[in-house]
Amino acid sequence: MQLWEIVKESGWLIAPIILCSVVALAIIFERFLSFFMIRYKTVVVVPKVLTAVRKNNITQALDICERMPYYVTNVLKAGLLRVDESKETIKEAMENASFYEIPKLEHNLNFLATLAHISPLLGLLGTVIGMIECFDVVKRGSINVGMVNPTDLAGGISKALNTTAAGLCVAIPAYLAYNYFAHKVNSCVLEMEKSATELLEILSERSYSEV
Predict the structure, then answer these.
(1) Among 42, 63, 30, 10, which residue's Cα sits nearest to residue 189?
(2) Which pTM value belongs to this model?
(3) Would you kindly state where each structural domain of the chain is located, as residue ranges?
(4) Is the pLDDT of residue 74 over 70?
(5) Quick one: which of 104, 98, 105, 56 has its CA closest to 77?
(6) What is the C-alpha to C-alpha distance for residues 210 and 198, in angstroms, rounded to an integer?
(7) Fewer Cβ in 10 A, N or C end of the chain?
(8) Using 50, 70 and 90 to split pLDDT, how confident is the model at 203?
């Protein structure tokens, strides 16, 4: 059976399920690309910022943060802008900046989780509608001719099974992707905390050497 025939037999509920699959796929692709770029910048950009700070070149470090903005450099920049203030002030500035940056890492993840949850529910709704149609056929067949032809039930059963299968096919990869990206967010937060801590240590050593 061709795919288009399956779609036609599945009824109108297959349309929102297909829409969920398209949106979920777009979110997954966007998040994969985003985290790939984050990984690249973490490996390449952050060491340059910290190296510039070690060389006491704060201006260069700020320039790198401004030219390559992303969540870690934005947090480090908040601390570098207060480099001449106390360690507690620098730490607080980076913590405040992190409150704005972490939600960016979680962009669209709640929507992806919602799609993973509603897709099987739409499939279940299609199952219920399909079974209602089957019972309606049985009822009308019993009244009119006293018996029901099994082929008369095929449409409702097909709709029930197709929508359930389609909903699960969307929900399973979407849920797996959500959990993977949630893990990546946690890893990015740890990386941000590590970089901020390292910057504080470098600035503390710098202040001590100046004394």
Answers:
(1) 42
(2) 0.81
(3) 3-206
(4) yes
(5) 98
(6) 18
(7) C
(8) confident
